[in-house]
Amino acid sequence: MSTLNRFFKDAIIYGIAAVLPRAINILLVKLHTSTLQSNKYAENTIYFVYAAYFNAILTYGMETAFFRFFTKEKNKGKVISTTFISLLITTLLFLFLMLLYSEDLSTYFGFAEPLYFQILILVTTFDTLVVVPFAYLRVTNRPIKFAAYKVLNIVIYASINLYFLLYIPYAIKNGNYVPQFINDHFYEHALVVYIFIANLIASVSTFIILSPVLFKFQFTFDKKLLIKMLYYGLPLMIAGVAFITNENLDKLLMTKYLGKETMGIYAACYKLGVFMTLYIMAFRLGAEPFFFNQAKEKNAKKVYAKILNWFTIIGAIILLVIIAYIDGFANLLLGKEEYFQGLKIVPVILLANLFLGIYVNLAVWYKLTDKTKYGMYISLFGAAITIVFNVVFLPKIGYMASAWATLITYSVMVIISYYFGKKYYMIPYRIKNLFIYLILSTGFAYLSFVFFRGNLFISTLLVITFIGFAAWNEKKEIQQFIENGS
After folding, report:
1. What is the pLDDT of residues 147-202, one digit of tens each?
2. What is the pLDDT of residue 354?
């Protein structure tokens, strides 16, 4: 089996790890939007926005640094234990300080109840402590175990959501048995708190299940190694925070300028763009360790170019399919019609996320050349675009400003990364091909959404035409895949 075929095989397994949990999570969107009013759904969104920020800060780039130094250092156990001990110390310090001042901080961050913030702190603590075990499974090519643990996590989370948001209200209404301690306190809290509790139980369970991975190695701490890892990883932390700003600041600003109800509608429709996000996540889970392991091979750059080409083709198909059948996806995932008015953001968000995926591919140059500071600079510049565009245009044109800001930000980041990548780590990308696929899929999506929305025959014809063109244009590559895989 060729290197590229092996990559795609692993990527499919990682795809299950990324897609199945998120697919279940997407199905929960309908449960949440059906159960919660849009202002309470906004509370749920704010919770997960801050969770993303805390996770990026608490890992401070050590996950990617782990991949880099695991492939460079001879003593693998030293890399594992140094990374974990560093994360353990900083995470416990974070936990202590945040819980100590949780009352004041919960008000500062805009939570309706201190309990919400306290649960968030506990969840991010346990999520950070499983970073190293999950990274170890990825770098040692154990995608099946990785996928199994990720799926188990979401199954626990989903089950508790269903229990609290569906079964308990039904049981109380119909006089069925409910544990007394739940019956006594259920109506004291807004239903949204039970989503947070489910998140905490799932995170604790995953930590307990994964903790044996850490005890396979002797615990040693190498200060010199840690300094090198921090020098590599801290710029990535800043880049990660900037990326989360690109993804989530719009929702925080929208709450301020347009109110929680509007933000809740925007956030719910934004979830339809998650199909592209799932695809990118599945790709990244397989690609990051693969890129580092492949770097020493003679044909590495050609492989990277082929991967981006196929990533773009598949991403373009996903974009076109979702837009062609957008009303069906909306009916499936959004529980109330009040959310449907925000569907016009979906095509823009999908294209923006596709550009984000291309940027993830291009980022290989600064990770392999240890020039992670460039990733930090690019992400900070992108965050600046997001902030300025949202502050200026949100009050004027509403939530479409946030969608356009996301697209402009990721498009600019792709251009800048490609420019510097040519200078420091030239990869022979098929730029002309990529442009053709992007323009063709975007054009077909525009036709479907604006002129033929609801016309399944025309929309399906557009999808088939694009897939047919891509298959014809890549027939030699497809034939090689078949031959190498057989």
Report:
1. 888 888 888 988 888 888 777 777 777 777 777 666 665 555 566 777 788 889 99
2. 92
Number of Cβ within 10 Å of residue 93's Cβ equals: 10
pTM of the model: 0.71
Residue bearing tokens 């895949």: 481
Calpha distance 117→101 (Å, rounded): 11
pLDDT at residue 414, as a whole number? 93
The CA-based angle 288-141-312, given to 5 degrees, is 40
Q: 431-446 and 456-473 helices cross at what angle (nearest 10)?
A: 170
How many CA atoms within 13 Å lie on the side-chain side of 130?
19
The contacts of residue 237 (CB under 8 Å, 6+ apart) are 56, 57, 59, 60, 61
Tell me the C-alpha distance between 249 and 326, whole Å: 25
CA 183 – CA 196 distance, rounded (Å): 18
Distance CA 24, CA 124 (A): 21
3-state secondary structure the chain: CCHHHHHHHHHHHHHHHHHHHHHHHHHHHHHHHHHCCHHHHHHHHHHHHHHHHHHHHHHCCHHHHHHHHHHHCCCHHHHHHHHHHHHHHHHHHHHHHHHHCHHHHHHHCCCCCHHHHHHHHHHHHHHHHCHHHHHHHHHCCCHHHHHHHHHHHHHHHHHHHHHHHHHHHHHHHHCCCCCHHHHHHHHHCCCHHHHHHHHHHHHHHHHHHHHHHHHHCCCCCCHHHHHHHHHHHHHHHHHHHHHHHHHHHHHHHHHHHHCHHHHHHHHHHHHHHHHHHHHHHHHHHHHHHHHHHHCCCCCHHHHHHHHHHHHHHHHHHHHHHHHHCHHHHHHHHCCCHHHHHHHHHHHHHHHHHHHHHHHHHHCHHHHHCCCHHHHHHHHHHHHHHHHHHHHHHHHHHCCHHHHHHHHHHHHHHHHHHHHHHHHHCCCCCCHHHHHHHHHHHHHHHHHHHHHCCCCHHHHHHHHHHHHHHHHHHCHHHHHHHHHHHC
The larger pLDDT score, comparing residue 139 to residue 43, is at: 139
Q: How many CA atoms lie within 13 A of 425 on its CB side?
A: 21
Taking the C-alpha atoms of residue 228 and residue 371, their distance in angstroms, rounded to an integer, is: 13
Tell me how far apart the alpha carbons of residues 30 and 36 are, in angstroms, rounded to a whole number. Answer: 10
> Can you tell me which residue has the tokens 């020098």?
231
CA distance 306 to 430: 8
**For the chain, what percent of residues have pLDDT higher than 90?**
18
In this structure, what token pair is assigned to residue 422?
A: 């040519």
Domain ranges of the chain: 3-485
